[in-house]
Amino acid sequence: MKQPRRYAQIVGWGKYVPADVLTNDALALKVDTSDEWIRTRTGIRERHTASARESSATMAIRAAEQALDVANVDPAKIDMVIVATATPDYLFPATACLVQDALGAHKAGAFDLSAGCSGFVYGLAMAADGIAAGSYDTAMVIGSETLSRIVDWADRSTCVLFGDGAGAVVLAASESPCGVLATVLGADGSGADLLILPNSGFKDPVTPEARSAQMPYIRMNGNEVYRFATRAMGAVAQEALKKAGMGLEQVDLLIPHQANLRIIQSAARHLKLPDEKVFVNLDRYGNTSAASVPIALCEAVETGRLQPGNTVVLAAFGAGLTWGAAVVRWQPLPEEVRRSWWMRLLRWLRLRLAPWSSRVRRVGRHVDTVVGEATGDREQAKSTDRA
Ligand code: ACO
Fold first, then answer.
1. Catalytic residue check, 257
2. Which ligand 1 atom is the nearest neighbour of the CA of 147?
3. What's the pLDDT tens digit per position in 344-367?
4. 221 is annotated as an active-site residue
5. Which residue, 125, 53, 141, is CA-closest to 89?
6. In this structure, which of 17, 61, 64, 370 has its CB flanked by the most CB atoms within 10 Å?
7. Residue 184 · residue 14 · CB < 8 Å
8. Reported pTM
9. Going from the N-terminus, what domains does the chain have, and what CATH number goes with each?
10. Which has the closest alpha carbon to 110: 57, 65, 187?
């Protein structure tokens, strides 16, 4: 008998942005720029920057907790945690593992995904495909960035563009045709040098000089990235719609990657979408890379721009070069499912107990090691005596 198709429904969403706000005027005191230049060339008015206590992992955890709350899902039900980020807390362990531990998502696999600003759309596609294939039932996809730590605050051509924050969604298997309907992903590594964090990996042997060198900064060929982006975003959105068997007239909202207002307007013109069908919030956040699409998605829901039954297209481009789009039928869970108080209580307990259960596992590992060593020593002593 033919199995019914499984869809990945977006059942939870959440965002977190740091409290510290850096306005264009405040930036103009640090570097040779002006509010007028930044606003007219990019559309950005201000951005949020992480405090010393915040990181991509801490922000991801806050966004994820909110998404779980909206979905009213027990963290122990999550099968996979994907964190899209260009600014992980460490190269390893994956930021996704830190998130998985903090949420008490004991059953989940976890990995980081590197696809620049397209990372969240890539993660959404991976999670949706995994759910459709039956590999997992519930997945968490997060975009989280601390770009303020990798911008050169003396380089006015890049430092005005970026901001920090995180956004998350929970996906759950559904048999009704909603959630992620189609995705398209693409890449062109010949443009790798156009947007790059030089000396950030292990391509070259690590010499003592390299070890003591300064942290790397973003380097970008703005004009080339701009040209690529204006072509890529509209085209990939159209391709994803075609794959979903839908036309532009069926689109209720486009949520594009928030990099530059002029790029967004150019994509909207390409798609012949009026302003009211295009979501823009980069004036308040700047470019938060992999976090930009999920933060915008959350705001679109919070402000009522996205309504049950709507068709929304998420489209992004970024370093790599990469691009991606997803066509989503917005169908949140019914209120009564989301209100179940015992599930709220269970989740509340699970999240509060997560740090303790993490500590218990650490102590358990330590005890295992000590006991293992003691037993090993005794065995060795016995065999020495016998000899
Ligand atoms: N303030 C004042 N003047 C500036 C600033 C600034 N912050 N930055 C550049 N300028 C000057 C330049 O020096 C130049 O001066 P000159 O004519 O005397 O040489 C002039 O402004 C024009 O510079 P351009 O680079 O041509 O400016 P443009 O209008 O192209 O805008 C921008 C630059 C905003 C960077 C644009 O090219 C852009 O948005 N590119 C795409 C960037 C992007 O989307 N990046 C994110 C990719 S996604 C990811 O994966 C992270």
1. yes
2. 51
3. 888 888 888 888 888 988 898 888
4. no
5. 53
6. 64
7. no
8. 0.92
9. 7-339 (3.40.47.10)
10. 57
